[in-house]
Amino acid sequence: MGCIIAVASGKGGVGKTTVSANLAYAISDKGFSVAVIDMDLGLSSLDLALDVSGAVYDITDVSNGTCTADDAFIRLNDGKLFFIPASAFSGYESLNRDSFTDTLRLLRQRFDYIILDAPAGIGTGFHVCAAACDRLYLVATPDACTARDCERTVLAAAQYEIDEIRLILNRIDVKNMKKSISLNIDQMIDTSGIWLLGAIPEDKRIALNASRSTLCVNDKRRSGKMLSKAGAALERIALRATGKRVPLSKFW
Q1: What does DSSP say about strands 74-76 and 81-84: parallel, antiparallel, or unpaired?
Q2: Which whole number is the average pLDDT over 7-31?
Q3: Taking the model in full, what pTM does it have?
Q4: How does pLDDT run across 38-88, given as a tens digit for each residue?
Q5: Average of per-residue pLDDT values in the chain
Q6: pLDDT confidence tier of residue 197, bands split at 50, 70 and 90
Q7: Rounded to an integer, what distance in angstroms lies between the CA atom of residue 194 and that of residue 144?
Q8: Which residues are 167's β-sheet partners?
Q9: Helix, coil or strand: residue 60
Q10: Dihedral of CA 53/59/60/63: which sign?
Q11: What are phi and psi of 135, to 5 degrees?
């Protein structure tokens, strides 16, 4: 049976969708079958991160029986990654939750990992994803506002039987941490009350890759070497997510 991972964040703008896209690609590159679903209904952006256009169906269509998951799938990464976009025009009132649950049950039988890119915050979309997932990965940046939001998100998730909740810290600036300009990793762990899965350094190549609709974990495949520290950190997060024991990151 496949593992369902929801990637969430207490607030927007912390890089959650970038993490979801890179994580899905990196895990599929390691020989695992992966389906990734954009669950940010009405404010979808995972299609942009994955450089996908012209989708015919979305997850709302699947849940309402307009099409099957196979009809909605967009195959990426040489057919190793399967993507279902979100509707840009309808919200969660249009999602048939019972049918959505049935769809995930079927996907568990076909894929090693199903990644749900949840919307930011702890609204309806978060609860739909939290109720369905085995693991919850919270993406946060090292600041007091995000730390508090992360704490509240963990509390909101406590009502669900989630096997594992982990923290992914993004946009880490070691110099700022040492100068106490930003919170350090220990403070973020203490505030959220959850273990760290990985840390991603501040990296200008993230913005460059985003402007080109490319993923930093694909730099190695395109050029023969990893071009960014963020890409290397995301590779390690993917390995840790699949059960490998690897260091958090070389930049640390």
Answers
A1: antiparallel
A2: 94
A3: 0.93
A4: 999 988 899 999 999 888 999 999 999 999 999 999 999 999 999 999 988
A5: 90
A6: very high
A7: 16
A8: 138, 196
A9: helix
A10: positive
A11: -130, 145
- The answer to whether 177 and 185 have CB atoms below 8 angstroms apart is yes
- Residue 155 CB burial class (10 angstroms; 0-12, 13-18, ≥19): exposed
Cα separation of 71 and 223, whole Å? 33
Q: For the purposes of burial, counting CB atoms within 10 Å of the CB of 46, is it exposed (0-12), middle (13-18) or buried (19 or more)?
A: buried
Q: 69 — phi, psi (to 5°)?
A: -60, -40
Place of tokens 């203490």: 190
Q: Which residues pair with 35 in a beta bridge?
A: 82, 114
- Residue 151 has which token pair? 């704490």
Which residue's structure tokens are 């979808």?
44
Q: Which residue is listed with tokens 């990644």?
A: 115
pLDDT of residue 252: 52
Tokens of 8: 């969430």
Confidence of residue 185 (pLDDT cuts 50, 70, 90): confident
d(CA 232, CA 69): 32
Query: Quick one: which of 223, 251, 249 has its CA closest to 234?
Result: 249
Rg of the chain, C-alpha, whole Å: 17
Residue whose C-alpha is closest to residue 169's, from 115, 250, 239, 248: 248
Question: Are the CB atoms for 135 and 24 separated by under 8 Å?
Answer: no
Q: Are 112 and 3 within 8 A, CB to CB?
A: yes
> Please, are residues 234 and 217 in contact by the beta-carbon 8 Å criterion?
yes
Q: Which amino acid is at 211?
A: S
DSSP code of 2? P
Calculate the alpha carbon distances from 204 to 3, 86, 91, 207 in Å: 32, 28, 33, 6
CA angle at residue 46 from 248 to 62, to 5 degrees? 120
